[in-house]
Amino acid sequence: MGATDPAPVFHAVVLAGGRSSRLGGRPKAGLRQGRRTLVELTLDAVRGAAGIVVVGPPELAVPAGVLRAREDPPFSGPAAGIAAGLRALQALPEAPWTLVLACDMPGVARAVPLLLEAARSVPGTDGHVGVPPDGRRQPLAALYRSEALRAAYAGQDPADRSVFSFLRHLRLHDVTVAEDATADVDTWDDVRRHHLT
Prior knowledge:
Layout: E1 10-15, E2 32-33, E3 36-37, H1 38-45, E4 51-55, E5 67-69, H2 78-89, E6 97-102, H3 112-121, E7 127-131, E8 138-145, H4 146-153, H5 164-167, E9 172-176, H6 179-182, H7 188-193
Parallel strand pairs: 1-4, 1-6, 4-5, 7-9
Antiparallel strand pairs: 2-3, 6-8, 7-8
């Protein structure tokens, strides 16, 4: 595939439903970097998507045109969030790819173009996963073939299971990304390091 190939058509699942237990329950999605909340920064990163669903609590503000979903039961983990997002996206015309992003990575916009470029240039895979310099795959900064992701979840209860347990049979291609592209916010030290309020 060449540089003139069209950009991949994709849907986006933005996960914003965690407990934020190490932040005393303060929702991470509402933390601000400058004037933008973390969920707004993540939505900016996926503005090229054909359709977007935010999986999180009903009080979370999202723009018009963005679908909403909630993991079942609430707070049952990111795998359940992905399943809820996939169900919500069934209301839209199908897209070949599904981008999955957690909303607690302020720099994730740096990873998105690399994942989309991998979809254009690396054939024969079920998805492309962001991998920072420490070598740990980040399945919540990844672009999956929609059909393969749906098949991985079919007929299974995702509540309180790891995301990797659904991906183990997929052929995934590692995409090298900068450390700050997938650095997440879990603690108050992280909040300070990312200059969040």
